[in-house]
Structure formats: C-alpha cells, structure tokens
C-alpha cells in the first residue's frame, strides 16, 4: 500500500481554498435567506455532490461500500450534531452585546480539538503539536483582537462572561465535531478515501434532515426560499462539499489537531487577498499575529511524522 501520510498537507490546503469560496457564497446568500437558510444550503446542496463523491471513489478505486457499525454511526452522529450545535452557539454568541469576545473564545477550537483528540481517540500530543496549536491560536487572536491595546488582558478578564462562555462552548462543539468525524472514518474497515467519503455522505444526510425538520417547524416559508435560490446555492454546495471532502480525507489520515491547525492557513489567504487586491493596511499587532500564525503552520507541517 502506498504511504499516504504526506497527502494530508495539500488536501488540507485545498480544503481551505474551497472553504474560502464557500464562505463568500454563503455570505451572499445570507442577505436573502438569512443565517439559517444559508447554513441549510451548505448541507442540502452539498448532499448530491457528497453522494457523487462516494460513487466516484467506489468506481475508480473499486472499493465496496463499507458496512455500517454502531461505532461508526455514533461517531458520525457526534460529528454532525456537534457541528450544528457549534454553529448555533456561535450565532448566539454573536447576538450578545460583546459578541467580539464570544467569537474570540470560539477560536479556542484548535486547542480543544487537540485535547479531545488525545482523550477520545488517543491522537498523540507531541511537543511540536502543542507548540503549533498554541502559536496558531495566539496568532488568530492577535489577528482579530477584542482590544487592540490589551488583547490578552481583555480575554482573561472576560473569561466568565456570557459571550465568552458561549464562545468556548461553540469552539467545543466544532472540536467535538472534528473528533467525531475522524472517529467515524477510523471505525470503517476500508481505505481512507472511502472512509472519508462515506462519513461525509452520512453526516450531510443527517444534518440536512435535522435542519429541514427544525426549519419546517420554526420558519416553514424559508425552505421554499432555499429551494428557489438553487442557482447560487449550487456553487455553495459544490464548494462546501469540496471543502468538507478535504477536511474529512485529511482527518482520516492525520490527527485532527494537525489538520485543524493547518486549516488556519485560510486566514493567511484572506489577508494576502486583502493586502494585494483591496490594498488594506494592517496594524502592527495584526502583522505580529500573522507571523505567529505562520510559525505555527510551519511547525505542524514540518514536525516529526509517525512514519
């Protein structure tokens, strides 16, 4: 079997590019459909492409569809439902008076995912992993500080406020989601490609069903509007499915802490675009944050491997 550990790096970077496109499309859709409608688009219109990916992997790789076990179903449900919960908690944090504090604490996802990956899956916590996670988290905080003059002091003092607690819970939801998806992929007795594709299909199916049921009760007219916006939504579905396919495949190969840390490269892409295309200027603190973040990305990609 061809060693595949190194594939997680280009796959993660490609997923970050696809997610940047998906985010841009969802921001456009949220103007007409609202946050919940744009979120449903991500799952509903990504579902056909997730199914096509499973079919393509099966035909090209000549893999059989894996058997569904209770272990797989449990991990997959944990990942899918935790992702929805993380999104809901983040939206709730944004409605607080000091929503910036909540968003800042939600960025603790990378640190939480390292701990959860170690506790639930036994993913190793090497010194390089801890250093990369720490630098990545610090870099993100400095890039979008709550207080430009005293960013760290503001975070510590606001630790027990409702926005901070909601943000921490949101980061925990996203961290559990990543761990659940990796656990589901590892529970399948098949290649990493089929495991990732099959996990994604199951997760998006469950998420679509849950969100459609919720919106049917809470905002019944929104489902009709989502279906009516199918032209733009298809782009969000394709890019969203591509991004998720990348994350799932990378996490089927590599510990989630490494994947989620390298995924922060999306911020580097965003700042390069802002600088080159929009000619935006950055404060000194943001430049420091970008340097710290890049240092974390270098460590996580060049650190010692498992062989």
One letter per element, helices H and strands E, the order comes to: HHHHHHHHHHHHHH
Termini separation comes to 14 Å
Measured as a percent range, the helix fraction is over 70%
SS content category? mainly alpha
Number of helices: 14
Instruction: Outline the low-pLDDT stretches.
Output: none
- What is the CA-atom radius of gyration, in angstroms? 19 Å
> What form results from the Cα inertia axes?
globular
Q: Which band does the percent of strand residues land in?
A: under 5%
Account of the 3D structure:
With 307 residues, the protein is mostly helical. The protein has one domain. 80% of the residues lie in helices and 0% in strands. The protein has 14 helices and no strands. It has helices at 8-44, 47-61, 70-94, 99-106, 109-121, 127-143, 151-157, 162-187, 192-218, 220-228, 230-253, 256-262, 265-276, 284-302. It is globular, with a radius of gyration of 19 Å. The two termini are 14 Å apart. The model has no long low-confidence stretch (mean pLDDT 82).
Considering the chains and any ligands shown, give keywords for the structure:
307 residues; mainly alpha; 14 helices; 80% helix; globular
Brief account:
This protein has 307 residues and is mainly alpha-helical. It has 14 helices and no strands.
């Amino acid at each position: 079997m061809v060693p595949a550990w190194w594939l997680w790096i280009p796959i993660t970077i490609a997923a970050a590019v696809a997610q940047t496109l998906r985010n841009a499309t969802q921001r456009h859709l949220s103007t007409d459909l609202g946050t919940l409608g744009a979120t449903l688009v991500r799952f509903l219109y990504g579902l056909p492409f997730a199914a096509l990916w499973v079919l393509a992997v099966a035909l090209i790789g000549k893999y059989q569809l894996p058997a569904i076990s209770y272990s797989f179903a449990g991990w997959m449900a944990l990942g899918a439902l935790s992702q929805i919960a993380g999104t809901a908690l983040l939206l709730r944090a944004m409605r607080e008076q000091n929503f910036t504090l909540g968003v800042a604490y939600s960025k603790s996802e990378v640190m939480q995912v390292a701990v959860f990956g170690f506790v639930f899956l036994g993913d190793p916590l090497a010194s390089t992993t801890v250093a990369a996670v720490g630098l990545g988290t610090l870099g993100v905080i400095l890039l979008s500080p709550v207080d430009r003059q005293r960013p760290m002091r503001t975070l510590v003092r606001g630790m027990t406020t409702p926005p901070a607690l909601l943000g921490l819970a949101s980061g925990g939801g996203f961290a559990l989601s990543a761990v659940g998806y990796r656990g589901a992929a590892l529970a399948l007795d098949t290649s990493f490609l089929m495991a990732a594709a099959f996990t994604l299909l199951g997760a998006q199916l469950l998420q679509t069903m849950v969100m459609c049921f919720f919106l049917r009760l809470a905002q019944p007219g929104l489902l009709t509007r989502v279906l009516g916006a199918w032209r733009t939504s298809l782009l969000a579905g394709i890019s969203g499915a591509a991004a998720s396919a990348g994350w799932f495949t990378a996490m089927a190969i590599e510990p989630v802490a490494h994947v989620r840390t390298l995924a922060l490269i999306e911020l580097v892409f965003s700042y390069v675009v802002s600088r080159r295309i929009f000619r935006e200027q950055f404060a000194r603190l943001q430049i420091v944050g970008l340097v710290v973040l890049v240092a974390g990305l270098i460590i996580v990609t060049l650190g010692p491997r498992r062989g």
